[in-house]
Design goal:
- This protein has 18 helices and 8 strands.
- With 509 residues, the chain is an alpha/beta fold.
- Helix 8 crosses helix 9.
- The longest helix is centred in the C-terminal third of the chain and has 30 residues.
């Protein structure tokens, strides 16, 4: 069954949960604050830009030398994230159904494709993003160990390897999920297959830890852009019988999946930039950066992201907030992450750009097309006994896995057409949702209330029986945002982002 839905700026489809009740504001008081607004806005912008400029050298100055020189493969435990899984114990219980040598190797942390590339482990982490950023509800839940009773949702990032694109969605997703995310450093040189293996390893370990060795039947994958290709590959792998005793994949969420890469304008523009020889060798980096910023980046940050820019302006002016930012703790979380963006979003070197285009995007896309062709052929065969294991797994995934495909209306990648192709040719249980006015990078931004969509598609996650809060009209003048939850004309000041009510670190004791 294929379902389509469009998120409109003038629609009241989406509601945010547990919002602070709205209080009426006396108009005279509102007028009294108008004279202060320009000053407060200027002060807020000054603080944001000053902190962004100073944060890196300050962080470097206060980082202990021992920490700077610590080998990455140890995976140091962050004060805000005391559980980063890096490997596997030999104590995993193997059943009769899982005694193949390949699965034993995976369960014990042996990676058959990584004999000469163990250093790649240094640059991949699986984290709890809300713990890293001190979101109080997630920290309290972790300390009480209540996160184990929620389904596990693993976010697989796009080409940049960061988890910034959907960060606004994480707090509301945590209402129903134990949210985890994969982060990949620019120095990583994992192949497409190796990335898939790392994800499968991590999920096996998490299911063992959460269920005490029993079946883990509540796992959902969410992949964005390139992560859409990778998460589909992982879903195919997990559909094989040998994993059933450990992992039962319940749902897949694809956001602007880059399975359309080979038919996109990015495929035509990006590889020539990665492979270009510099006219002046000493200026190779500058030439690469110039072409990247003038030819590729505008596809994702140009006029297609006009709505995104307008939303940022209105948030800064205290006129509105994304529907998922419906209380003070979430506004503070949004502010903290915004301050940290200059540290987390790093410029991608040319070698990394070339590697990811060739070894991730190209290999992953062609692998997906080959699998889709094999699937078409298998559907024409009455007896599938002689069909290879991978194609049988893809048949099972195609017929049984519930999939939500979220695409931006103005995406430079042909995501709208790709959603139609995936829902008609691959996923038989697909729900397509179009975010109006959004481009590639802003689909998970201010206009989307993802948790409400997922509660409709996966009703079993809605343990609290929530159906959204009271209707709140999303005003056209706010470009998809909603009025502030507290009706305040001045908003939250940056120093409150780290107040004791809005920020909390994990207590390790």
């Amino acid at each position: 069954m294929i379902m389509y839905e469009v998120s409109s700026s003038s629609s009241s489809t989406w509601y945010a949960q547990f919002s602070t009740p709205r209080h009426e504001v006396v108009m005279s008081g509102r007028r009294r604050h108008q004279s202060y607004r320009p000053f407060l806005m200027a002060m807020r912008l000054f603080l944001i830009f000053t902190t962004a400029l100073l944060s890196y050298p300050i962080a470097a100055a206060f980082t202990p030398p021992a920490l700077m020189s610590q080998p990455q493969h140890v995976h140091l435990l962050s004060s805000c994230n005391p559980y980063i899984v890096d490997g596997f114990s030999d104590e995993v219980l193997l059943t009769e159904e899982s005694k193949s040598s390949e699965l034993k190797d995976l369960l014990r942390g042996k990676r058959p494709h990584r004999v000469a590339k163990e250093k790649n482990n240094d640059y991949i982490q699986f984290v709890s993003p809300l713990l890293e950023d001190g979101y109080p509800p997630a920290v309290l839940e972790r300390e009480a160990q209540h996160h184990r009773f929620k389904p596990l949702l693993l976010y697989i990032p796009g080409f940049d390897g960061t988890i910034l694109a959907p960060f606004l969605q994480f707090p509301s997703l945590s209402e129903e999920f134990d949210v985890r995310a994969m982060k990949i450093d620019n120095a990583d040189r994992s192949t497409f297959v190796e990335l898939k293996e790392r994800i499968v390893e991590y999920l096996l370990q998490e299911c063992k830890n959460r269920s005490g060795g029993n079946v883990c039947d509540r796992v959902y994958l969410m992949g964005e852009s390139f992560g859409g290709i990778l998460s589909t590959e992982v879903a195919i792998e997990l559909s094989k019988p040998k994993y059933k005793v450990f992992i039962d994949l319940k749902g897949l969420v694809l956001v602007n999946p880059a399975t359309s890469y080979l038919r996109s304008i990015v495929y035509k523009l990006a590889p020539p930039i990665a492979d270009a020889k510099p006219s002046i060798p000493a200026l190779e980096g500058a030439e690469y950066a110039l072409r990247l910023l003038t030819e590729v980046v505008p596809l994702f940050l140009g006029e297609r992201e006009h709505r995104f820019v307008q939303q940022l302006i209105r948030i800064t002016l205290f006129k509105g907030l994304p529907p998922v930012v419906n209380n003070a703790q979430r506004e503070a979380y949004m502010g903290r992450v915004a301050f940290a963006i200059p540290l987390r979003l790093k410029f991608m070197p040319k070698d990394t750009f070339r590697w990811r285009l060739n070894k991730w995007m190209d290999v992953g896309s062609r692998r997906f097309e080959d699998r889709l062709e094999a699937l078409r052929a298998a559907r024409d065969v009455k007896d599938t006994i002689n069909v290879d294991v991978d194609t049988q797994a893809m048949l099972k995934m195609s017929e049984e896995l519930r999939t939500t495909i979220v695409v931006g209306e103005l995406d430079a990648m042909p995501s709208l057409e790709e959603a139609e192709r995936l829902s008609s040719e691959l996923f038989q249980k697909a729900h397509v949702h179009v975010v109006k006015g959004s481009g590639h990078i802003s689909t998970c931004g201010g206009s989307l209330h993802l948790i409400e969509l997922l509660r409709e598609v996966f009703p079993e996650i809605n343990l609290s029986g929530c159906s959204g809060r009271e209707s709140c009209k999303i005003l056209e003048e706010l470009h998809g945002l909603e009025p502030r939850y507290d009706n305040s004309p001045i908003g939250m000041m940056p120093w409150n982002y780290w107040s004791k009510d809005n920020y909390r670190q994990v207590n390790r004791d």
